[in-house]
Specification:
By secondary structure, the chain is an all-alpha fold. Helix content is 63%, strand content 0%.
Amino acid sequence: MTKAEVMKELQSLGSKEAKERWSKHGAREPFFGVKVEDLKKIMKKIKNDQALALELYETGNSDAMYLAGLVADGAKMAKQQLQAWADQAPWYMISEYTVPWVASENAHGHELALQWIDSKKEHIAASGWSTLAGLLAIKPDTEIDTEEIKSLLDRVEKTIHTAPNRTRYAMNGFVIAVGGYVPVLTAQAIATAKKIGVVEVDMGGTACKVPFAPDYIQKMKEKGYLGKKRKTIRC
C-alpha cells in the first residue's frame, strides 16, 4: 500500500465515537479517530514496510503515527530517526507506546532512553521511562545492568511525585516492569513501590486509573508471569 492509499483508508475508518474518546485522552489534531483494532487490520495488509512507516509518521496524523509504530522495524531505524520520532510525538499514545516500541528494538534504544529521562519536556521524558520499561520486558537478564536499574529505582522514589503528569505515569510503569520482568529485583521494586504509594496522574477526565504498582506486581506473581520475557512490547 502507498501512503496515499493508507491515509484514504484511515479516513474511511475514522469514527466520531473514537475521535471523542481519543480527544478526552489528549489526542491532538490531525487525526481521524480510528480504533486500534482497525489499525491492526491495516497492519496485517502492510506487514513490515519500513519506508512506508517513516512516511506515515511524518504525516503528523496520530492514527498514521500509531500505525507506523505497528509496521516499523525499530532495529533498522537510525539514531536520528528515533530522536525525531520522540521529538514529534503529539500525545501519550505515541510518546509512551509507539516511540518505545521502536526504540526498544534498536541498538541505540538504551542510550537514548537514558538521555530522554533527563529531558525537561514531559513527552520525551515519558518516552524514556517507557522505553526503559520495554527493554526490561524483552531483554535477557544477562543483558540488564542491575546496578543501573537499582539506581533508577532510587531516582523514581525520590522524584516521581514532583515529575510532570505523564512522566509520573511512565515512571510508575517502569517500577512495575522492574518488579515483573527482573526477578532478582522484584523485592526491591515492590519495596520502592510501597514507599512511593499512590501515584496521582490527571487522566483527562476519563475512567482510566494509574495502576498501584505493589498490587500489579503481586498479580503478575500470582499469575506466574514474573520473569517471563516478551518477544515485543507492541500492542
